[in-house]
Specification:
Largest sheet: 7 strands, parallel
Number of strands: 15
Structural class: alpha/beta
Order of helices and strands: EHEEHEHHEEHEEHEEEHEEHEEHH
CATH architecture of the largest domain: 3-Layer(aba) Sandwich
Bound molecules: nicotinamide-adenine-dinucleotide
Number of domains: 2
CATH class of the largest domain: Alpha Beta
Distance between the termini: 35 Å
Strand order of the largest sheet: 3-2-1-4-5-7-12
CATH superfamily of the largest domain: NAD(P)-binding Rossmann-like Domain
């Protein structure tokens, strides 16, 4: 049987590389486009075709669509630091909105029939406290969240006009590493990454921002989703939009919120050591509580079953961090 070509933008990044590995595992041909702004070539599966390209370079991306018959696009390429987006809003508008528009023009021109977009719970902003469903009020705080919300609208309008199917997947907090340690987060300021890095370098401490939120222990409440489960969700979503010939938007989380302190305690349990907590004042823009109402997700993707427990994700994250350190990948050129 002829293998189908899937184009993964941002496929040298944390989530995109994991999806690329899983697509290869599932016998797809994978073409990865990445400008390596925050991605790493060593994360891309050897069996994928890697093309160093910027989605803002229309001509170059067009040449890829001319060369390969693309069946579907999974679009992850984006800039995603909330903090940076406040300082450099135009960079975010260019990359996340205009970059996406380039992809959508090509998808329309070359009659690609399915498109998966990485979106985020940051589109809900601070207006929401507690469980958010797909139609909860969307009032993003940051420029990052705003550009992602614009991306969703742009995609919906293109898909309507050019008649292709889409899945918009709004991730909550993504955690862990590939279960075979083929890929994982290299640099990111997330709680999981910082904790794992500290632990592996024998620094058994962590900063927590804010201890007076109205949650059970005063620290922020979040919904965490394992990278392996999230990647699998993309494969299921792609199958589903093709089968149903319908588009959908899904909030992607387990709907089982944990506080920041609970996460630190779980890490301590896994390593069987104490972790010293240094409390700092609240950070601007941190949402008190946000977690996922995943009723629609579990209804639409019936075959998708979360397999990773929190301690499993923590173990993978720690082993990945150890691997990064051992092979000293930071010194390798991109
Ligand atoms: N990590 C999370 O917890 C999380 C949560 C919600 C949503 N997301 C979304 O998931 C997607 C992937 O995030 P990630 O965590 O893997 O981040 P990442 O930074 O590891 O991956 C993004 C990739 O896109 C590439 N890229 C950026 N701009 C590009 C451009 N103009 N042309 C080509 N490539 C470009 C980067 O080099 C990088 O490899 C993003 O769209 C992000 O908004 C991530």
């Amino acid at each position: 049987m002829k293998r189908v070509n899937i184009l993964v933008t941002g496929g040298a990044g944390y989530i995109g590389s994991k999806i690329a590995h899983d697509l290869i595992q599932n016998k797809f041909n994978v073409i990865v486009i990445d400008n390596l702004a925050t991605g790493y070539k060593f994360l891309v599966p050897k069996k994928a075709k890697f093309i160093k390209a910027d989605i803002l370079n229309y001509k170059k991306i067009e040449s890829i669509f001319i060369k390969y018959k693309i069946d579907s696009v999974i679009h992850l390429a984006a800039s995603l630091s909330v903090e940076e987006s406040q300082k450099r809003p135009l960079k975010y508008y260019m990359n996340n909105v205009l970059g996406l528009e380039n992809m959508l023009k090509l998808v329309s021109e070359f009659q690609v029939n399915s498109f998966v977009l990485s979106s985020t719970c940051a589109i809900f902003g601070n207006s929401q406290r507690g469980a958010v469903h797909e139609n909860s009020v969307q009032l993003p705080e940051s420029n990052y969240g705003k550009t992602k919300l614009m991306s969703e609208t742009l995609l919906i309008n293109y898909a309507k006009k050019f008649k292709f199917q889409y899945a918009i997947l709004r991730y909550f907090n993504v955690i862990g590493a590939d279960k075979f340690l083929k890929t994982g987060p290299v640099k990111s300021p997330t709680l999981f990454k910082v904790l794992a890095k500290n632990i592996i370098s024998n620094n058994l401490s962590i900063k927590i921002y804010g201890k007076d939120y109205s949650t059970k222990d005063g620290t922020c409440l979040r919904d965490f989703i394992d990278i392996n489960d999230l990647s699998n969700l993309h494969l299921e979503a792609l199958k589903k939009i093709k089968k149903l010939k319908k588009s959908f938007i899904l909030n992607c989380g387990y709907g089982m919120p944990k506080t920041v302190l609970e996460i630190v305690n779980e890490f301590a349990k896994v390593i069987n050591k104490k972790i010293k907590i240094n409390y700092f004042p609240r950070r601007n823009g941190d949402v008190e509580k946000i977690y996922c109402n995943n009723q629609r997700l579990t209804k639409i993707l019936k075959k998708w079953k979360p397999k990773f427990k929190l301690n499993h994700s923590i173990k993978n994250q720690l082993m990945w961090e150890k691997k990064l350190r051992k092979y000293n990948v930071f010194t390798k050129r991109k």
